[in-house]
Amino acid sequence: MIQIVKISDLKVSDRSEDIIVTYALGSCLGLAIYDPVAKVGGMLHAMLPKPSGIAKNPFQYVDSGVPMLFKECYALGAKKERLRIVAAGCASLMNAATMFEIGKRNIEMLNALFASNGVKLSASMLGGHESKTLKLYMNTGATSVQVRGKEIQL
Amino acid sequence: MSNIRRSIRRKRAIKEIDNIKPMSKTYMTIATLLDDPLISAEKLEEELKYDPLATAEILKIANSPYYCGASGKIKTLQMALTRIGNKQLKDIVLIKMSESHLKEEKGYSERENEFYEESIASAVFAKLIAQKVGEDQNLAFECALLHDIGKIVLGRLLADGKEDIEKLLASGKTSFDKLESEYFGITHQELGKMLLKKWNFPEEFIKTAELHHNPETKEYDKLILVVSLADLLVKLSGLSTSADGLYYNADNSVAKRLGLSDEDIIQIIEQGTADFLDLKESLHNKSI
After folding, report:
1. Which of A107, A134, B245, B255 could cross-link with A88 by S-S, CB 3.0 to 4.6 Å?
2. Max CA pair span of chain A
3. A49: nearest CA in chain B?
4. Tally of structural domains, chain B
5. What is the second-level CATH architecture of the domain A2-153?
6. Which of B175, B237, B263 should be substituted to probe chain A, the one whose Cβ sees the most A Cβ atoms within 10 Å?
7. Residue B218 pLDDT > 80, yes or no?
8. How is residue B117 annotated by DSSP?
9. B86-103 pLDDT, tens per residue?
10. CA proximity to A128, closest of B170, B182, B179, B165
């Protein structure tokens, strides 16, 4: 079954028939993680690095959404050391002034989180000026990014 | 690329305007009637009597969490006038008026109804920005709703130039509006201006359509800046996946001239997205 992760949303699964997908990653971060042994995976579509005030929806932000993605997958039996981690999105407008560099700030927040938790990206397609679609196939753990109608394996 | 080909494409694009159906007269009339703050519901109903679905569809949007709080359902146009007022009701009428045009866009959009949703997201963001900077909120909403309308014309021709456009984009240096002008000899802004002129829209609408990617003008300065910023922030927020992606320049002059800070930008994206989601469910008509 296709599980759609909406903007500021998170989905996890342990069903091999699922395909988890998120559309329209502009400057947003799409993060997919998968444990090939437990066959558990999940995806986050976070919009902004951190909230301006009090967060109403933790999935909207990289700083709160990413830890929740990992925790929900652990709860289904995933183990940190086995995880394959793929990131996509974080595009930018052209010649963007600092105030518009949301994508770049999302990447910085992700890197900081990963550095302090000893986690590394396995593959990524970040930046550029394209809107992207990220997919995670739960049967194999394969991930792909679709840009301008073309699906590329990651 | 030869100038002759470009000039042929330009002519074709302009000719394509003739193939766009006119806007609904009923909705046009109602939108004009709603400029009067003392307009009666009977007068609106009189105009809508041959289109029984229209009232229901207008009320459906009026009852979305975006317009209607927790204070009970809006059941009639009279209730709508009292509860949300003539100006907001006009915003809704403009959504319904442009719906079928916005939904027909297939060239830029990758998904069904994408351009319709993207245009409404721009309207919602523009209203929010207008509120922050003290500009007319309803006018900003309405101008933003139609600011990209030229895409419904150029979108019909985009597929023909797909390969060339991909090549131009691959350089990573051309903004999409520049690319339009290089390939087609005309931009979606210019076509939007022509279309809105043809439909006799007020000057503010025409100017925002024309200048939203070049807001260096003095006329309607603030309004165009508001719509321009809304357009950029909707692209950033990922509320669209259209072919032009994020291929637009975004120096900080727009936000700076409006007196907005980095923090304001984040807040607008947060609130704008929440507002749009409050409205989104009511936008689609399911007959069953």
Report:
1. A134
2. 44
3. B266
4. 1
5. 2-Layer Sandwich (3.30)
6. B237
7. no
8. H
9. 999 999 999 999 999 999
10. B170
